[in-house]
Amino acid sequence: MTSHRGLGLLVATLGLLLFSVPAGPLEAQSPPFQRTVPGEWIAPRWMGDVAFLSTNALTGGIAAGVIRRMEGGRFRDGFAAGTLGGATAYAGRRVAAEGFEGAGLVGRQISGVGASMVRNAGEGRPLLEHLIFPVGPVRLHVDRTDGLRVHSRVSAHDLAWTVGFALSSDTEFDISASLSAGAPVFRAPQRQFRGPNGEVADGLSIAGVVGLADVSEARLRTVFPHERVHVLQYDFGSIVWGDPVERRILERHRWGREASRWVTPSVVFPAVRGGFYGLLGVEHRNQPAELEAKFLDRGRR
Asked: Could you report the per-residue pLDDT of 64-83, keeping only the tens digit for each?
């Protein structure tokens, strides 16, 4: 496969990831499908789980199928295996939004397995041959191609934001929350954050880093799971198509080939996604990732 075709394939996969989530969030209340405020829908919680599980399975299947076809294989072979990976990734997000200690860490690893399965299916490998486990700004790669080999790669994007938050004078590293989330978590006791449209936000996630403003414990039970889900969504997009694009670009140069063994930039996926929605004028609250995270955090109230 030529480099040009490979990049085109991965851009097409991004489109699938961006558009395959339902057009409105579902909330665990009744009666079903009653309009409340703009962007809000109400439905039984099981319907939301079915909808998001199905769309994530479909997303994983189509992504793996398209990649497999472009690699010279059959679409249906990639699709069948990819659906299982997409469903597994959603299961990880579902776990990450739960209230028990360590839910984020456990959910992040399950989601990492799901993303790895989609990527393996697309590349024509056994589903569990190469697994990627995100832990903080590091991604552990477990390769079972020939025996068992483990190596790590650092996400430059994650690391940069982790350092930025650590050096900020008005944020504090929360080690307990970080261990529970499986990602760096910083508290901002004297400030609040600003969302994409300038609105006040009680929490945010940038790359694989979570920021929590000074809010009540009751409010935190919704905000923290919401941001943990965003971390897993970012992982999925980067693992499935962002990292392969970056690796192809880096491997065009000798220094890039060496660097790609240890570092992944992890900037293509968030940059393209943000630019894409910006061009379409889609409000942040109506973006697929936000709708899914909003649905999953409802069960914490």
From this structure: 998 888 888 899 889 999 99
| Helices (H), ranges, 42-132 | 45-70, 75-96, 103-122
* Separation of CA 71 from chain center: 24
What residues does 205 pair with on adjacent strands?
210
Please report the DSSP string for 135-176 in residue order: ETTEEEEEE-SSS-EEEEEEEHHHHHHHHHHHH-TT-EE-HH
Spatial neighbors of 82 by CB under 8 A, at least 6 apart, are: 60, 61, 62, 63, 64, 65, 117, 118, 121, 122
What six digits make up the tokens of 49? Answer: 């789980």
Tokens coding 203: 């929490």
The pLDDT-based confidence of 196 (bands split at 50, 70, 90) is low
Tell me the CB-side half-sphere exposure of residue 88, using CA atoms within 13 A: 22
Rounded CA gap, 196 and 3, in Å?
Answer: 34
Across all residues in the chain, what is the average pLDDT? 83
DSSP summary character for residue 43:
B
Whether the pLDDT of residue 181 is over 70: the answer is: yes
Q: Encoding tokens for residue 194?
A: 């600003």
Specify the residue for token string 């697929």: 288
pTM (predicted TM-score): 0.83
- For residue 210, give the 3-state DSSP assignment: strand
**140 and 132 in contact (C-beta within 8 Å)?**
yes
Neighbouring C-alpha atoms within 13 Å toward the C-beta of 68: 26
Cα distance between residue 287 and residue 292, in whole Å: 9
pLDDT band at 47 (very low <50, low <70, confident <90, very high): confident
Give the start-to-end residue ranges of the domains of the chain.
3-298
6: nearest Cα among 178, 173, 253, 249: 249
SS3 99: coil
CB atoms under 10 Å from CB of 76, counted, come to 12
